[in-house]
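Target protein
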Amino acid sequence: MVKHVQRRNLLCGVVFAAGVIGFGAGVAMLQHAATAQETMVEAPIFEVDPLWPKPLPNEALLAT
C-alpha cells in the first residue's frame, strides 16, 4: 500500500512539473508573438469629411 502511495505522489509531482513547464512555455510563446505584432503596420486612421453630404446638383430634392 505504501508503494502505491509513493507511486501516486511521484506521478502527481511529475504531472504538476510538466504542467508548470508547459504553462511557462505557452506564456513565453504568447509574449514573443505579442512583441512581434508590435512591429506590424497599423490600420489607417480615417478622418471625417465636414462637407459631406455634398449638395445635390441643380437644387434637386430627394423624395421621402
